[in-house]
UniProtKB/TrEMBL annotation:
This is Uncharacterized protein.
Length: 113
């Protein structure tokens, strides 16, 4: 994993270095928040075990032009507000069952007016 210190210092992505608290003393562990976004640089199969793959990641920040373009494109494609917008997003990414559940819950909460 590659982390550019200049991106971390300006990033709004909180993280914690927990290597001193790890059960494995030589492991370098970093915890990131759930909304952290990484760019995949390379994916390779490990030579010692063909069932394992290793990913090389680079953290992005809020000034990443590709991420900004993608975010704006998704916002333009998915209209609405709140949970309705979430349902639209679920449909867009192919999570039809979850979208149906969400819309059914929204219908239950809707008034008869």
């Amino acid at each position: 994993m590659t982390i550019d210190p200049s991106k971390i210092s300006t990033s709004i992505t909180p993280f914690a270095m927990v290597d001193k608290h790890s059960a494995l003393p030589r492991e370098q562990e970093i915890l990131f928040t759930m909304h952290s976004v990484f760019r995949i640089v390379e994916i390779t199969q490990t030579p010692s075990n063909s069932r394992l793959w290793e990913e090389q990641l680079t953290i992005t920040d809020e000034s990443d032009p590709q991420l900004s373009t993608l975010t704006n494109h998704i916002k333009e494609e998915i209209s609405g507000r709140g949970w309705y917008r979430m349902g639209q997003f679920m449909l867009k990414v192919g999570h039809f069952d979850q979208a149906e559940e969400l819309y059914n819950e929204l219908l239950k909460g809707a008034s008869d007016d």
